Records
---
Amino acid sequence: AAAGLSYVGGYVINTYKSYDNFLQDKYALLPAVIIICVAVVMFIIGLIGCCATFRESRVGLGLFLAIILVIFIAEVSAFVLGFVYREKVKNDVQGTMRSVFEKYDGKNPESTVVDYLQEQLHCCGVKNYSDWTTTQWFNSTGNNSVPRSCCRQDVKNCTGRLDQPQEL
């Protein structure tokens, strides 16, 4: 379990590099760091449990049980806090994404990240393609279209024009 959690934490940190422009709050990596710390603690606790079982130590097994109960209470608390604050996190991420979309000009690093995100997630905009109609890039281009990264991958010669939403 500790190795699995270590992998998940490392994967999240590695994946974060692709989306760091959207997650300007550096505390976004905190869950991944916590997961890695939990993995280290789980490894140590598992080692204590194995040693206590091997030596048939009542004190060691009692300590192991107490530690497992504390971890269980912490997991339930984390689940409840995640459930309670899910809307706040959702609104914060959407607000940050909107600000990055507002900086889109087709050339800067934020634009590259937006294009990458839309291509990888097969999406367009924060909620849908109509989000682009309020951006500065959309108003400055004057061609009534969204970036080509909004185009479906199976459509050839997509221009991103809003009069052909079936291609987006």
---
Amino acid sequence: MASASLQFFAFILALFGVFGDITATLLPNWKVNADVGSNIITAITQMQGLWMDCTWYSTGMFSCTLKYSVLSLPIYIQAARTTMVLSCILSAFGICITTVGMKCTKLGGDTDSKSHACFAGGVCFILAGISGLVPTSWYTREIISNFLDQTVPESSKHEPGGAVYTGFISA
């Protein structure tokens, strides 16, 4: 079994991953479209996330609309919603289980049961990472293929937003 300081360092990294995973799931900027237009006064930035679409105007106004209908969404957004929530849940289970199994805690009993708990927590983190990496990769693929498609007008093209990068780093 690893030393207590190594376990604590890995636990801190896992906490950062959990917070990043939750942040990526909730952020509205998975897709970003900056339309400056003819002048900077009327610049509009449109962001699309898993749960809402937001528009930011250069005047400082900001408005968001929730995506209520699940069935009207494209399949990659439905899958991303599901797997990102699954990733958050698995990460939370991983935190709880790993806390019991760490050497620096008084929970969990003998060293054998603590090592099994750490292993189970690690499996939860690996599954959470995979279920966070798959939707971000799929979403990025959809954005890039749409961006490179010559039949799509320039005003409908988007770029990956900060939430996608947060999702990759967290995974």
---
Amino acid sequence: MEGELGRLYQRWSHVLTQALAHLEAYIDFSEDDDVGEEVLSQVDVTVRALEQEIRGHLRDGRRGELLRGGVRAVIAGPPNVGKSSLLNLL
């Protein structure tokens, strides 16, 4: 996940994390008027723009291959350390 694609996916992750943080702030603090309705509209705009960017990326043939096909990974370790639990969570 290094290189251009890794940076792209990290940026997407950052955008989603930031949108989630704003949404949680709205839920937690909207009654106190610390966070206004404009936060919801900004989150909506941000997430919709990201959705369109991801859709475009997936339509781009070779560039969307990793997202469509996934990655191969190995979960290795000693017995009874939570490998199956991790896999089930994923």
